[in-house]
Write a structure and sequence with these properties.
405 residues, two-stranded antiparallel ribbon, alpha/beta, 15 helices
Length: 405
């Protein structure tokens, strides 16, 4: 593939093409058809990539330059690895811009003093630089658009490849229809966002998610489990992402028996997500944490596995409030297992900091609800039964309802 620039009689346009060829034309790493190798990333450009007008052509005079035969440049091989489509469009754009600039210069008569002085060369140089910059931006947008389309096509192929694993006779084809129903395009897309371009890892996580779904079929269909605390959807932020809240002072069961309760709360948050929203914010208020119910870190590891598999890319933020020093051993046990991408979503704040943070990202009524709930949980004069009667949640219709009727 060879990028050849058409000849132009105007010298400024000729200089523009030379500058475009030397500085702007994008170069791509493309496979060579003969040796199946890759071309160099920046092939050497010829000194003058313009096609030269041959002199002495038969049946034409020196003034008839438009009908002269065109000879190929000797260093034409160096341009072979250019992307032809991008090159052709860039050449066409450069012709259009050069013609526009040349016409503008012809329309403006120059004074003799300007032609003989330094003003006219500076003006031509400034105009040529402006045209070159416009062409550079045009070519950049064209290249970005084509790369984006290529990546989109590549991602679609990866999604189809993951979904094909669920077909009969394939690696995951033996799972039940109930389990395979979760491996839809949306879930495969979330896996690829979490593990970009790592299809084997996505396939492994897909298998783990389907296996977990098989093992927890009753929980997922009935959503019945013992109430282990006050984990509930307390509202939504300005981006319509659900906000879940829980306080460890209201924990009723050991942490190992809270996993199913947390799964049901997450499923309810997913029910509240409008179209285009796939994540939620979690507020874990550790005020009043009882170590006797949370001494075993194994349930936290199980919750982490669910977040990285079945609920992949469902987490916008996890805000941990007022973590006591005696709970540091739980963090030390689990934190090394948390992926770096997930660590970036975990925030440690005080009660005042989280109230200010949510005030910036949530509507006024939701912010007031969070603030009132946190103040109530820190009021020693309010009993557990009084707090339980005040636990409210937001349903899928956006209405407040008793959280655990």
């Amino acid at each position: 593939q060879i990028a050849v620039f058409p000849p132009l009689a105007c010298r400024p346009r000729r200089a523009l093409h030379a500058e475009v060829a030397a500085n702007i034309m994008p170069c791509f790493l493309v496979p060579c058809g003969r040796c199946n190798a890759h071309a160099p990333a920046t092939p050497e450009m010829p000194a003058d990539p313009m096609m030269e007008i041959s002199e002495g052509s038969s049946g034409s005079s020196d003034s008839d330059a438009g009908s002269s035969a065109v000879s190929e440049p000797e260093t034409q091989q160096a341009c072979r690895k250019f992307n032809f489509r991008t090159a052709a469009l860039a050449v066409r754009a450069s012709n259009r811009l050069a013609f526009r600039g040349g016409a503008a210069e012809e329309d403006q008569p120059a004074n003799d003093s300007e032609v003989d002085g330094e003003v006219a060369p500076r003006r031509r140089a400034a105009k040529r630089a402006s045209l070159v910059e416009q062409l550079r931006r045009h070519t950049q947008r064209l290249t970005l658009k084509r790369v984006t389309q290529t990546l989109s096509t590549h991602k679609d192929e990866q999604i189809r490849g993951l979904m094909d694993l669920l077909m009969p006779g394939m690696l995951l084809g033996e799972f039940s229809d109930f389990a395979k129903a979760y491996g839809d395009e949306a879930f495969c897309s979330r896996l690829l966002r979490k593990y970009p371009d790592n299809v084997p890892k996505c396939a492994e996580k897909l298998k783990q998610a389907l296996l977990w779904r098989e093992q927890n079929r009753e929980l997922l269909t009935t959503r019945k489990c013992p109430q282990a605390g006050d984990y509930r959807v307390i509202g939504a932020d300005l981006e319509q992402r659900p906000v879940l809240y829980m306080c460890m002072r209201n924990q009723l069961l050991p942490l190992g028996q809270c996993v199913d309760f947390m799964v049901v709360a997450m499923l309810r948050a997913i029910d509240n997500m409008p179209a285009g929203v796939e994540t939620a914010t979690h507020i874990w208020d550790l005020h009043g944490m009882m170590i006797r119910l949370n001494w075993n870190p194994a349930p936290l590891v199980a919750i982490l596995k669910m977040a990285e598999g079945y609920f992949a890319e469902r987490m916008h933020q996890v805000i941990i409030v007022d973590m006591p020093r005696m709970a540091a051993f739980l963090k030390d046990a689990v934190w090394p297992l948390v992926p770096d991408k997930t660590k970036e979503k975990v925030k440690f704040m005080t009660a005042d900091e989280v109230q200010a943070h949510m005030g910036q990202h949530c509507p006024t009524d939701v912010t007031g609800r969070i603030r009132g709930t946190m103040q109530q949980n820190r009021d020693s004069s309010v009993s557990l039964e009084e707090r339980r009667r005040s636990w409210m949640c937001v349903d899928e219709h956006g209405e407040l309802a008793p959280a655990f009727a």
